[in-house]
Amino acid sequence: MTDKLTGSDLLNLSLKAEGVDTLFGIAGDHILDMLDRMVDEPFRMIDTRHESGAVHAADSYSRILRRASVALSTTPGHANAVPALANALHSEAPVVNIAGSADSPNLGRGAMQEIDQVGIARPVTKGAWEVPSPERIPEFVALAFRTALSGRQGPVHLTIPHDYQSATVDAADFERYAPREYSSPTRVLADPERVRQAVKLLNSAERPLIFAGSSAGATADPEVVRCLVETTRAPFVSEDSARALIPDSHPYSFGLGYLPLNRAAQMVRDADVVLMLGKRLDYTLGFGGSPPFNANVKTIVVDPSAAQIGRARSGEISILGDLGPVCDQLKAEAERLAWEERTDWISSLRRTHDAWLAELYELARSPEPMHPMYVSEAVQRYLEDDAHITFDGGDYCHFLRASIPRERPFRFHNVSSFGMIGVGIAYGLGAQAALPDKQCVVATGDGSFGFNGMELDTMVRHNLPVKILLGNNSIWGIDWQIQKGIYGRPVWTDLAQGTRYDLVAKGLGAYGENVTTTEQLEPAIKRAFDYNGPALLNIEVGQIISPVAEAAIDRKMGSHG
Hints:
Helix content: 40-55%
Structural class: alpha/beta
Number of helices: 22
Largest sheet: 6 strands, parallel
């Protein structure tokens, strides 16, 4: 290392020290100096077509590989990135978003493209800072990574003025802040007494249920979770980044933890003790109320964020700590006790779960127009065991998400609790970048595709062979159905009939095929999956209401009554 470096050199050294190997973003005036230095480093640089697409791809990449990712933008590009940062805050993705800005002496007096970048980012990130001087770049990079990876994980933002990137600094400035013991801040243990109390309560339960959410997906060891479930003999459901921490085929697993799409999960109404492993008591669980919970339920809340402990309702026992080490502690404590099989409870859950799936698959027998369940059943014959799949959109995707089993962890993405659709194509891009030798599939609606569909071009340019199953029903499905159910007419929720998204794919250099009948579907899937590159099937499906839309209509009509 030479005695003198530039600010961009400090940035590169800091990113490499944090283990960064891939960068997502778009070039622009205020990051040109750092880009010129980065291209000579061993970074994989994936340039997207929109800054939101870059952040969504980084979001996907980080959660699959369970490490922080980096997205870069210039100043107006930062404004484009902000919506995706809001989504990443909900998906709990540790994305480090770095933007350049005009030269520091000109900030505050009408510099080119000037906006309050930090102020805009602060409400949708865990932390946002402007680096105050070039020699402090390593300090603020370290701060950004620590913040993104600690507690409930999430995005952060750094602004680095353009003149700081080219400024000359001392090499010792990097050594002063080089990451050491804080590089992986995910080992915060819980109070042992709280763990003992929690395991004792779980042991006394007649009808326990374990919900695993995103924070468990961030740090928990799947093998430890499996051992914890097998030891306690407690049924398990999972959602978001925790999906399939134990496989759906496991005798104690009952699949998806999203209540409208799993009647077995709805049996939380009968549970007497519920263990929340990094799952928030948010709107998806009625804020901890009754329904969906039993009025006398006792909850055990395990969470890495003090802000989430006791939110919505007080837990019978609350445990603060990272899910990885806390699951180790719970498992070790559980192994000290004797556990009985809760045969009736498990059998009841299994009957409900199997009957629900059978009911869903029966829908695939419906005549034309094609039911989304027909797509679900057909694609499963071509999915490899470790394929990654992303679900993006409303009614079409809800059927697939409810029915496609997951056997491996970190192979599932869905629209986050923010409800931002249009993320799927970019999620698929990030997934394929994270898993270059695996199948990566995206199920998306026609409405959702419109947001980031141009990232197909990115897939082509960077040889990312994502397979896209686009369900084309010519409507913004779930809102169209809710409007029809409540108000009797759709407003702003009809799309053009017969749009050929497969031709869009072909125009961007990908494989595209139009599918209008059930007979055409399976051969088309085989051709798309055999194609050595990104592929899109434009599949005409019926305007069929999902259980999620039905539940929304029932809930809203009930509130009007």
